Amino acid sequence: MAYLVIAFCFGLAGGIVGRIKGSSFALWFLISGLVPFFGLMAAIAYRFERDEPRRQCPKCGRVTKLYDALCTRCGEELDFPEQLLAPESAERGAVTHAG
Ligand SMILES: [Zn+2]
Question: Which residues contact 69 (CB under 8 A, 6 or more apart)?
Answer without folding.
Answer: 77, 78
